[in-house]
Amino acid sequence: MAAPNHTTPAILILGRFAGILLSLGTALLYSQKEAPEESPEEIVYERILEEYESEEIGQTDFLQVLKDLEDDPININAATIRDLLRIPFLDQETARQIVRFRNQNGRYQNQRDLLEVPGMTEELLLAILPLVRLRSAPASRPLVDYRVQLGRPLHTVRGYGEPSRANSYQNPFYLYHRLRWRPSPVFQAGLTWEKDSGESNWFDYGAFHIAYHWVKAKSHILAGDFNLESGQRLVFSSPYGSPAALGNTQPLAASPLRWAPHLAADENAFLRGAMWHWAFSGRLSLNLLYSNHAIDATLSPDSLTVRSFYTSGYHRTHTEIDKRDLVRERLLGGGVTADFGSGQAGVQAAQNRFSLPVISAAGSFRNEFTYLSGFYFMGKESLRLGGEAVLLDGKFPAIQQTLLIHIPRPGLSYGALAYYYHPEYWALHGRGFGGISEPPANGLGYFMTLYARISSTTEIAGYFHASRPARAIDEFKFLKRAQQFQLRQKIDRSWISARFTGRARRASAVTPSRKFANLEQVTRAARFQVETDFSQNLRISHRVELSWVSPSFNAEKNHGVSFYQDIRFRVRRNLLLQVRWSQFDIPAYDYRIYEYETDLPGSFRNVLLNERGLKWFLLLRYHLSSRWRFALKYREIYYPDEETLGSGLDMVLGNRRKEIRMQMQVLF
User: Fold this and answer.
1) What is the DSSP letter of 103?
2) pLDDT tens-digit readout, 70-101
3) Within 13 Å, how many C-alpha atoms sit on residue 615's CB side?
4) Pseudo-torsion of CA 432, 438, 441, 445, nearest 10°?
């Protein structure tokens, strides 16, 4: 392997800054013309997804729900509170205010009228605009949505080159199908199936659901695969939780009860069975559910206990296939929710049984978990409170409390959240605060966030998050800290943002004296970004990000750097082209930088940048007609200092990762 060279040519750095200055200069030349309206999908959604600092999440229910709502928006002038809660950005109080304002003032004449609703902000309006409409759908509205996504790596992977080995990869193609049938507003059925690259079975994973709204009985019935969210998400949540994010009030103002079919290709973190929701009075409702699901797991050497759940969903080799469906989970639960003037409150109970004992965060084993939970949400225009308290087996508590203070006109909001998760507490379907897919366990902490719109062109935001284990499992006690601050300024057609992030976390390293040590490592990152709308059809973005670590044991370089230039050009009304070129020089994993990538509709990708390399992609979205939509993405990453990438069967025999993926969507 060639010796790494971590020297970034100075001319390239100067070129990136010259590009940023060019954007600013060109924006000033266009200052006499009215700037185009920002795209909610491109701005608001990406800001949220950029906070998911985990590599290549891919298909998510969050984006699938948004895409379905874009294809079939909610009629804002006829929607009930329950209809509005299908929008992930809305909480119970905001949905109630939308309906109340409509009842008091009549139909909304245009979408901007929603700004008159108490609690509605400019940013929230941008997020929901693509998801709502002002009138009923025409009779010819599509009732069938079928999409197929196909992809494959174009680089050579070691696992495919050894077909004689029993433990090798088979089929390099990725295949994802999804079919949704909605013959009427009260009935929907869906089918999803997927095969990852390297799996031999073309139908490795499948999910199915039927949803029916029995209007006369005031009931919702959902059978098949589904997700349930309640309270502060400590017992039931979607597969991906809410990370700490600037200006994101979702964790602080979560709706107490929300359910939806499982739409993504996540093969483990969902419920498989049936759910019944019955609104038996004007204010009280009952929720019952049953789930029976086989889950992938890694067992102990004697195969008598579960060491961990295998959540990647890969079944490429015999080793991975042997972990499939090893543990059966049976879950029975129910709850009662009460609506009152300014919020909701509820209680729920659930019993979760596994076919084998499961290890907890504190090291004990059990195969039965019984949860008793109470939660509430209340609030008005400026003050919102929410909380949940859970007992596991009647004694191991998990508690979370949120507070959100919002002053709409000045654009000022403040949020605070505190939590405590007992060391013995653990919930497979719960999600701890600040993570993506981690169950709540053995922790306590607090989170504070502040957002202020100084003027129509200036906004600032920041947060601070501190946490530590409730019980020191090992000898190294550690307090995690994270803070982030951002300033955004609009200059004519450009949004300029500067962001600083600092994180202190536990690290293990070999010191210069060759001693192995546990230590507190502080990572800092600074980002500068310019987004310029040169016209309604052309947006160019530039970003530079630096990261540095202390203490650092990398003698060659003490910082990492990444750049990218992104061009989005709407060639025609039905044709969108996006090109991005990235360059990065990251000396070690501790300096890693995550970069969000726009992806095929319904999916996204966060890429972990490490080592020195170049990355680029081309994304094309073309609407052949109102019913046929095509998308294509080609992506390549080049590491000039390497001869091979990765290890084991995943080793790339070369220094380039290349892949192509495409999607066709048909609406009837």
Assistant:
1) H
2) 777 888 998 888 788 888 778 777 888 899 88
3) 23
4) -40
Residues facing 501 on adjacent strands: 484, 525
HSE toward the beta carbon, residue 218, CA cutoff 13 A: 11
CA neighbor of 338 nearest in space, from 281, 298, 380: 281
Interatomic CA distance for residues 70 and 64, integer angstroms: 10
| Residue-range domains of the chain with CATH | 214-471 (2.40.160)
Decide if pLDDT at 42 tops 70: no
pLDDT digits (tens, 9 = 90+) for 248-281: 566 676 767 888 888 877 787 799 999 999 998 8
Q: Smallest Cα–Cα separation from 304: which of 369, 269, 268, 354?
A: 354
Q: What is the DSSP string of 556-585?
A: S-S-EEEEEEEEEEEEETTEEEEEEEEEEE
**544 and 527 Cβ atoms separated by less than 8 Å:** yes
Ramachandran angles phi, psi of 557, nearest 5°: -155, 145
**And the tokens for 284?**
């009280």
Residues 348-360 have pLDDT tens digits of 999 999 999 998 7
pLDDT greater than 50 at residue 22: no
CA 363 to chain centre: 29
Sign of CA dihedral 642, 648, 652, 654: positive
Q: Which pTM does this prediction carry? A: 0.85
Task: With residue 98 as reference, give the H or E element that holds it.
Answer: helix 92-105
Question: CA torsion sign, 153 to 159 to 163 to 166?
Answer: negative
Q: Please state, as a whole number, how many other Cβ atoms lie within 10 Å of the Cβ of residue 337.
A: 20
Q: Give every CB contact of residue 53 below 8 A, 6+ residues apart in sequence.
A: 243, 594, 606
Residue 612 has pLDDT above 90, yes or no: yes
Give the Cα separation of 183 and 452 in Å (integer): 45
Q: Where are the beta strands (DSSP E) in 341-426?
A: 343-359, 365-379, 383-392, 396-407, 412-421
- Torsion on CA atoms 32, 34, 40, 42, rounded to nearest 10: -40
Residues in a beta bridge with 632: 620, 662
**Cα 588 to Cα 612: distance, rounded to the nearest angstrom:** 10
Please state, in angstroms and rounded to a whole number, the distance separating the CA atoms of residues 482 and 466: 6
Q: Which amino acid is at 137?
A: A
> Can you tell me which residue has the tokens 């009842």?
103
Q: Within 13 A of 354's CA, how many CA atoms are on the CB side?
A: 24
Neighbouring CB atoms inside 10 A of 410's CB total 9
Residue-wise pLDDT tens digits, 466-520: 998 888 765 556 788 999 999 999 998 898 999 999 998 776 665 555 565 667 7
